[in-house]
Amino acid sequence: MSAVLASSAPAPMRPTRRPAAPVACGLALVLLALVFLWHLGQGASHLGVGDVLRVLTGGGDQLADDIVFSGRLPRTLAGLVAGLALGLAGGLVQGGTRNPLAAPDTLGVNAGAYLAVTAASATGLSVGVLGTGAAALAGAVGAAALVYALAGRSLYAPGRVLLAGTAVALAATSLALMLQMLDEQTARGTFFWGNGSLIQTGLTVPLWTGAATLVLAMAVPALVRPLDLLSLGDDTAEAMGINAGRMRLYVLLLSVAFAAVAVTVAGPIGFVGLVAPIAVRMVGVHRHAWLLPLSGSVGALLVLLADGAGQALQTAAGGEIPVGVVTALVGGPVFLVLVRRLTTGDAETGASVTEARPLTGRRYTTVVAVAAVLLVAAMLVGLSVGTLSIDLSQMLNPDPLIQSVLSQRFTRVLAAAGGGACLAVAGGTVQAVIRNPLAEPSLLGVTGGAAIGAVTVITMASTAPHWMIPAAASLGGFLALLLVMAVARRKGTLDPTRVVLVGIGLAAATSAVVQVLALRSTMTIGAVLTWLAGSTYGRAGEDLLWLVVPLVVTVFLIIGTRPLDMLALGEDLPRAFGLGLGRVRLLVLMGAVALAAGTAATIGAVGFVGLIAPHLARGFVGSSHRRMLPVAALLGAVLVVVADTIGRLVIDPRQVPVGVMTALVGTPYMIWLLRSNRKVNR
Predict the structure, then answer these.
(1) Do 122 and 183 form a contact (C-beta atoms < 8 A)?
(2) 216-269, pLDDT tens digit by residue?
(3) What pTM, to 2 d.p., does this model score?
(4) Phi, psi of 490 (to 5 degrees)
(5) Strand, coil or helix: 592
(6) Inter-residue contact 350 to 610 (CB < 8 Å)
(7) What is the rounded CA–CA span in Å between residue 330 and residue 112?
(8) How wide is the angle at C-alpha 89 spanned by C-alphas 86 and 91, nearest 5°?
(9) DSSP 3-state of 321
């Protein structure tokens, strides 16, 4: 999946009319000052901008002083610092990599800092703002180093770098969520902050992080000329005496430090570092001497406006929408537009799913038998372990207590097995249609779209019949996939890498919508986390009925595998054999959506099963879908059952959602795939 620079990449340095940049800076500063004052006037108490100004000039009463200096001013300063840091970080990293989609969140830096701060919080140690900042910096540097190691020589390839950043971000977010699950108090304290929050308990954190931002900003002027020269290409920069590799390292380290500061003060806020520099370039400013300060100013504007909107959109329970959710709602569509303009070079490369020699006869039968035995063994273990251990003799002759426990566990194990099988087949079929080995329902936004449909019914129509949940999930998943295909299709061709990148952006936007819906309901934070992570806990017999249609679709997909084999051959050859590509793709994708949506309605958003199981199956039995899909279904069922069982045991009597467990396995697997692909493409 080698990629080339997009037409939407940061433009090479070119002369900017002198009045344009200074005027833009002046307007940005005036607008930022106005928004700063407006944000000070936002809040639950009845203090307007005029009241706040009287307090700041020494004319307010004691109550107003307490409100302004304990809550309003720290929050506004936190937004100013976070936005400034994120805007500078985005401008630096986009200039250093010449990648229009590079940003602290898309490269996994924010997630790495978030994981480190969550881990520090989970230890129970009071490390203060300096300790939190150091932890955030360490996590951000670690994430950036991992992304750099995965991208290697493809650092200028937008597709590969973003896929690497996504893999690192998913791994870090999953680990952070698991740490939150270990302690309910920690989960309550970090859930809101984990979506980006400017709420402060005083001026200490904003002032310290503001000072750190100013200190870091002192290094920016020294990078202006090198960044302008790097925008002309490495050869030009080297000819002008710039060590491109060393200078790029300095730029990345400084951008990571800015991102760590932003996470320290406000948590991981997405898309600000992506949108702010792009907005500046859109007004014609390209020289970094003006672009970087303008990016910081626009970033601060975006954060303060988003936080004000989040406060205005009060939830039904009296809370507010986190600022990171608002920025994702805005930044997600911007990301989709940018990805549509991206050129990766994969549309003409043909099938990108690895072809493997098929097994035949006895060897294939042996693989199927072993997979079936593994599934039976995993289900028996799932039935026997838990807070109450049950051996085989007790299963055969259960007393009333054992029978009750077995009944609950049996339903749960069946839900896990059925959901895993459906997700595996969905992943295998989507990979065949899109011809991308990284295609998977959760990475294509299908799971997010299904979650929007299901959560909408749960939160807004709680008295609706149960069948409406899977129906709404199916509709949401199908619409999400149609959107991905429409945005990713360009000039009549479907670029495999662009499809995944569009899905990543859509997944971020749908996740924000789901969290808004959940927060506006009376659902508890624990219920929100459980739903978003996927869980088999408390499943009843009627819940299994939601898997009937997906399982029937699974059977039909396995039976009709000849078109899937032909789809892997590219565009021209299937048409020569009379295959209606459009009709077949639509039918297959509708089947995959039904599988993913039905599973989401049953056990929530469980990811990576559709990535891992088909790859393992191809390695065992080859690429023929007639043989691969049944094995993938068995392996997917084994994976989810085992993940659910381990999740029940890790922190017993509490439980880790199955979606977190599959992500902890799936993200390293995705990283390994990226690493292997990099070696192949060298």
Answers:
(1) yes
(2) 999 999 998 988 888 888 788 888 888 888 888 888 889 999 998 998 888 888
(3) 0.77
(4) -145, 125
(5) helix
(6) no
(7) 23
(8) 110
(9) coil
